[in-house]
Design brief:
Oligomer: single chain
Number of domains: 3
CATH class of the largest domain: Alpha Beta
Radius of gyration: 24 Å
Strand content: 15-25%
Structural class: alpha/beta
Strand order of the largest sheet: 2-1-10-9-11-12-13-14-15
Shape: globular
């Protein structure tokens, strides 16, 4: 074990207690720095507030904030008082957002002016006087009063917590369109903190820059928890900005950061300058970045990147080793029995065979679901979702919901999503809510929404629409319609829209998406696309555009994902990949 790692803490509360007398930097935000001692003190003040407001029932505290210090202080408070933080996704809107809060039985909400605007008019089952506005005068007065009482008494309240106490509910999503809330106890997160700190070399002098949202497992499990374990400091910027990435790194003196592949691609899209490598970064940890993007980033910023594959559910992890082939996820730990399984036969799929050009020659026989035959023991379940639990763990095996294949040497490769869900810019969400929005359009008779692979990382959203009789697709009008839908999540607008005379149906009249996924945008029907990252601006996809897209996939070693949609035999929802 690292000499810097505080041993013996079986709870996150214990890890935080280890920092009680630590006067080294613990938290950076803008131009302000808090020592770990200060972080612990402020967390305990919020724990006192939470304790005073506690009522019977699940002690769940919904946090709807950007990456600001209050988020981490409330995470620390929950660990101390035995409460559960429910990470509320601020990109969701309307009833979908309200449903997240009601379903997880939040008895307190912590937010700010921006979040309060999103909540206005929604049925939350949380009284207004139990919504704490961290940027409000009443909140500050409450904290000041608590600090004053604590100071006068000369002793802080002590609460009993245990490893099995639930600390986090992290949202993922499923095929029904209703997100699932992943359970994470104090003990599991404390164990993750120790393993990650040791495996990736966290040290007290590290400054860990957190560009990923704190409601996501990547930020909590791969950055905050291991930093806490060793006493490294955490640096926050309210929201990720690719153009501000390097300036933030230099401002904070950041030595490490976490990422997902799409965020890395956004950084690489910023203009390159001669001095980019002049920065303090030593290591980045993340998932789903293409091999070319990783190589370019390492050269440009002189920072080593480590890729991993894992999930907030805790079922399995796969990590890159020094001899991992390009494009591979890597191999699991020696204690984790991971395989690629045919969901129908429950037998291992054939090992992958490759063409001389590196393409997969036996996709139909090699692609299956990534399954850990030992991972069921690490999965703590979903909140109030026994059906989801039973689907994820069967015969004590953890079924990831992700498709993959494995070469003769044992290295794993990602091959797509197995369920009716999507992952864009590290956000997981289901297709059904988007379909409901699209089908409100007066000219749309029916819609199917599904994931198609992104040329660099993760997925893009594609919709196939069946027009009502006599209607003609108006790309500008369709874009304006989507912009006007208040409950359309920020990651949800389709990048591609296929206009079809009819959607494929099963014998029972249900829409089937297998052929749509397989064809993606390379199909006989007209396809409109919005190629930019910003404002929706649909135009007809041409043959020249298709050739350029194929070339982009080839450049990033992801050509094998084109056409893979016909191969899946599993339709289960995938996990929330870190």
């Amino acid at each position: 074990m690292s000499e810097h790692l505080d041993a013996g803490a079986s709870t996150v509360a214990g890890l935080l207690a280890n920092r009680e007398h630590d006067d080294r930097p613990g938290l950076h935000f803008d131009d302000t720095m808090w020592t770990w001692r200060h972080v612990v003190t402020e967390s305990r003040h919020r724990a006192e507030v939470a304790s005073q407001l506690r009522r019977p029932g699940p002690f769940h505290i919904g946090v709807l904030l950007d990456n600001v210090p209050e988020y981490l202080l409330w995470l620390g408070a929950a660990s101390q008082v035995g409460a559960t933080v429910v990470g509320i996704n601020p990109t969701r809107r309307g009833e979908e957002l309200a449903r997240d809060i009601r379903f997880t039985d939040c008895q307190l909400l912590v937010t700010d002016e921006s979040g309060a605007g999103l909540l206005e008019g929604l049925d939350l089952d949380v009284p207004d006087d139990r919504v704490l506005r961290v940027d409000g005068a009443e909140y500050r007065s409450r904290l000041d009063a608590t600090a004053s009482v604590t100071s006068a008494s000369g002793a802080a309240t002590s609460w009993e917590v245990a490893p099995h106490d639930l600390l986090l509910l992290l949202f993922t999503s499923g095929t029904t369109g209703d997100p699932k809330a992943v359970r994470c106890t104090q003990g599991r997160l404390a164990a993750i903190a120790g393993r990650a700190a040791e495996a990736y070399g966290f040290a007290p002098d590290d400054v860990c820059y957190c560009p990923m949202p704190l409601f996501h497992g990547n930020a909590i499990m791969a950055l905050w928890a291991p930093a806490l374990a060793v006493g490294a400091s955490v640096a926050l910027a309210g929201r990720f900005s690719a153009s501000r990435f390097l300036a933030d790194v230099r401002h904070f003196g950041a030595t490490r950061f976490t990422y997902v592949g799409k965020a890395l691609a956004y950084v690489l899209a910023t203009p390159e300058e001669d001095g980019d490598a002049d920065n303090p970064l030593r290591q980045g940890f993340g998932t789903e970045a293409s091999a070319p993007d990783r190589a370019i980033f390492e050269r440009r910023f002189a920072c080593h990147l480590v890729e991993g594959y894992g999930s907030s559910e805790g079922g399995t992890s796969i990590n890159v080793t020094p001899d991992t082939p390009p494009g591979s996820l890597g191999v699991p730990s020696p204690t984790d029995d991971v395989a690629v399984i045919d969901p129908d036969t429950r037998r291992e799929c054939d090992r992958a065979r490759f063409t001389p050009g590196g393409g997969l020659s036996n996709a139909g026989d090699a692609i299956g679901e990534i399954v850990s035959r030992t991972g069921g023991r690490g999965f703590e379940g979903y909140y109030k979702n026994p059906v989801g639990d039973a689907e994820r763990v069967r015969n004590d095996w953890y079924w990831s919901g992700d498709l993959g294949y494995r070469d003769e040497a044992g290295y794993f490769y990602f091959a797509g999503r197995g369920g009716d869900w999507l992952r864009v810019d590290s956000e997981n969400f289901a297709a059904a809510p988007i379909e409901r929005v699209v089908e409100r359009h007066p000219d749309v008779a029916a819609a199917a929404v599904y994931a198609v692979p992104d040329p660099r990382s993760g997925d893009q959203v594609m919709a196939t629409v069946e027009q009502r009789r006599g209607a003609t697709f108006d790309p500008d009008g369709f874009a304006e319609f989507l912009r006007s839908q208040a409950d359309l999540g920020t990651k949800w607008p389709p990048r591609f829209v296929r206009v079809s005379p009819g959607l494929p149906l099963t014998a029972t009249g249900k829409i089937t998406k297998a052929s749509l996924r397989a064809e993606a945008w390379d199909c006989p029907d007209p396809v409109f696309w919005s190629p930019g990252r910003g404002e929706l601006d649909y135009r007809l996809l041409t043959d020249e555009d298709r050739r350029a897209l194929r070339a982009e996939f080839a450049d990033h070693g992801r050509s094998h994902l084109l056409g893979v949609g016909a191969a899946p035999r599993s339709r289960r929802a995938g996990p929330d990949v870190l």
